[in-house]
Design goal:
123 residues, binds zinc ion, two-stranded antiparallel ribbon, two-stranded antiparallel sheet, alpha+beta
Length: 123
């Protein structure tokens, strides 16, 4: 398990948000979330929109939002060992930054899976 700084996950959103400056928020993610090859294969297969709330950045923001999406790793971190190889289609899912953040939050020590989040935002 890698421990990385928050701004490695949301680099685009943090660049212009000075309120985050100096904040030392650390979260744990698998390094494959940052692999651009796996990321691109995931987006090519699933499509470039949020699979929880259906937000399509290009539809909302035009060219500015073209190809913008976060990629979330579906497998719980405790199930991953060193020999684990990511499957970009099964293990990764495109989500918007809001839903991505919600997927990494916990209620009573548990995080929601993508289907639970989908039910939550689409109810
Ligand atoms: Zn979303
Ligand atoms: Zn994630």
């Amino acid at each position: 398990m890698d421990v990385i700084y928050f701004d490695n996950i949301f680099p685009e959103s943090l660049e212009t948000q000075s309120c985050f400056e100096g904040a030392k928020i650390t979260i744990s993610v698998n390094k494959y979330e940052r692999s651009s090859i796996a990321r691109n294969q995931c987006i090519d297969f699933h499509g470039c929109y949020c699979h929880a709330c259906n937000l399509d950045f290009k539809k909302v923001y035009g060219e500015l939002g073209n190809n913008f999406i976060h990629v979330h790793h579906l497998k719980p971190l405790h199930e991953i060992n060193r020999e684990y190889v990511v499957d970009p289609i099964i293990d990764l899912i495109p989500v918007c930054p809001n839903c991505h953040a919600m997927l990494h939050r916990k209620i009573n020590g548990l995080s929601l899976n993508i289907d639970q989040l989908k039910d939550l935002v689409n109810k």
